[in-house]
């Protein structure tokens, strides 16, 4: 098994709380990290680093855990440039545009979906994402949902069945029949490819009772829930997520005190997706309020062709710091350890002995530059499972 030491790291973000200090990032200055095979073997001060086969000089730059993008929608065809243009001329976002992508996705061949997904993954990897979750939700037939999940499952373990994105157009007059399909034949076809089940719980998509029925049916098939909750308006999604012990309630843009309390008392992570507010010109979710209440917060891209067409976690970190009341340390924690928590993973999102060797080398002396230098491509190197891929 080959081993590599990265030395001369100005700031090493470990997310190891046992290192103490005031930051959740457990930063180590003048640090080194040793990779053995696909795992982290050692972290500490550069001067104490053990000898290894290979040596990489970080040149006084920062190293942090690879980003964990715990919310994306990457299996689709077409784009929605026109819709975005119209929105930037003042038209509001409604999730109705999902139908445009459903039509394009159904019409696409497998090779086109595969090529699109690969393109977005390559894009994300160059920006430091080493783990990503992705969803179906642009097929909305038994065959098209199963196909999307099959394509996704070839690239990640974190696959989410979102047959309940909107009611399929064919069922517009009979949503109950669509819910029966999503919890019946479609679930049977999709469950073998997925780890998670998700519902868009929102006016115009699925209400609280429908969402509960769908998530409960998924749970009975061994899928664990996550919820698109309280994105466009206040609704029952967040409280339902906590009630069903969902791993994550995603968006969390419109919250009451009771929602914040429920999140603080449960083990559901609040995943904030500032790319969506950016690209729909909506009010920002209040990260500060959640953090001050003790809620675990994750930050992810929501990359999709409608509401948030960015694959860049660094961009989301910058938005969260500028507009959502997060400190740079909090935002970086949320985009790494927070994303891991939203996927209920302990092997990623931190650089501690035994964790997966997923690391990002920045062209900057500290992780703070991710927010301080917005829009600048700072990712200079990426290791995934101990292998340098960028
Ligand atoms: O997370 N909210 C629902 N789904 C996506 C948007 C999908 C789309 O507009 O195509 C989201 O923002
Ligand atoms: Fe989403």
From TrEMBL:
Zn(2+) binds at residues 71, 73, 228, 302. Pathway: Amino-acid degradation; L-histidine degradation into L-glutamate; N-formimidoyl-L-glutamate from L-histidine: step 3/3. Catalyzes the hydrolytic cleavage of the carbon-nitrogen bond in imidazolone-5-propanoate to yield N-formimidoyl-L-glutamate. It is the third step in the universal histidine degradation pathway. Its cofactor is Zn(2+); Fe(3+). 4-imidazolone-5-propanoate binds at residues 80, 138, 165, 231, 307. NCBIfam families: hutI. GO terms for molecular function: imidazolonepropionase activity; iron ion binding; zinc ion binding. GO terms for cellular component: cytoplasm. Keywords: Cytoplasm, Histidine metabolism, Hydrolase, Iron, Metal-binding, Zinc. N-formimidoyl-L-glutamate binds at residues 138, 304, 306. One of its GO terms (biological process) is L-histidine catabolic process to glutamate and formate. Binds 1 zinc or iron ion per subunit. Fe(3+) binds at residues 71, 73, 228, 302. It is an enzyme of class 3 (hydrolase). It comes from the Bacteria. This is Imidazolonepropionase. It is found in: Cytoplasm. It catalyses: 4-imidazolone-5-propanoate + H2O = N-formimidoyl-L-glutamate.
